[in-house]
Amino acid sequence: MLQALGLQAGYGPSQVLFDVNLSIAEGQVATLLGRNGMGKTTTVRAIMGLNPARGGTLTFRGEDIAALPPERVAQRGIGLVPEGRMVFPTLTVRENLVATAADRFRRASPWTLPRIFALFPRLGERQNQLARTLSGGEQQMLAIGRALMTNPWLLILDEATEGLAPVIRAEIWATLAALKDEGLAILVIDKNLSALKRLADRHHVLEKGRTVWAGNSLELERDAETVRGWMGV
Ligand SMILES: Nc1ncnc2c1ncn2[C@@H]1O[C@H](COP(=O)(O)OP(=O)(O)OP(=O)(O)O)[C@@H](O)[C@H]1O
């Protein structure tokens, strides 16, 4: 579904990604692992067209997306839950969700407000509240709901559980498992290896802008010590 080969990207004169290789099959959950500053967010930005690829290849559902601007990438069906959530603070929960709503692919059962509120009942209870008055966990749920309202084929979450209470984290992990069961492909950036091992099919470790390890959860178990070393945990 998504494949990056030898991906390169950076900011102005500084190159950050040198050789990122990443693949996510349909309906799979994949992870991007690595210490802070190793290029995970930059990889996401390259996929989304925010920091366009400068080398290598990037394909999504069989199409070359390397040169597409961000709005086109989103239209192709990649939904981003960015680092720091970035919900619209002065819009209500409902307005945040409606703002991005689109069903470009005429899905069999598209995401709607009632479906989002069934997934996150708390958002339903607070639908007329301004987003900035929500707790961190609720804002994260809203960010996920907003990405789902674009009816993506692939959902990307950058540090979605960071700074959240354990009980809220558990809720987010359970939600991602439910979305996977529905067939949604997901790319997760997170540091919680034990949750990721259960949820994800494939893992990629980044070190200084290069994919230095990739494998499934069994292989991750086998190479746990090495991977933990790369992650600094
Ligand atoms: N806007 C920017 N301008 C210049 N350099 C940047 C910018 N954003 C990030 N970088 C640099 O790019 C490198 C990779 O950062 P990136 O955010 O992709 O890492 P990360 O693996 O996602 O880590 P983190 O968990 O800290 O977000 C770092 O050296 C960082 O300093």
From TrEMBL:
It holds the Pfam family ABC_tran. SUPFAM superfamilies: P-loop containing nucleoside triphosphate hydrolases. GO terms for molecular function: ATP binding; ATP hydrolysis activity; branched-chain amino acid transmembrane transporter activity. GO terms for biological process: L-amino acid transport. The keyword Repeat does not apply. Residues 2-233 form the ABC transporter domain. SMART domains: AAA. InterPro entries: AAA+_ATPase, ABC_transporter-like_ATP-bd, ABC_transporter-like_CS, BCAA_Transport_ATP-bd_LivF, P-loop_NTPase. Keywords: Amino-acid transport, ATP-binding, Nucleotide-binding, Transport. PROSITE patterns: ABC_TRANSPORTER_1, ABC_TRANSPORTER_2. It comes from the Bacteria. Belongs to the ABC transporter superfamily. This is ABC transporter ATP-binding protein. It comes from Rhodovarius crocodyli.
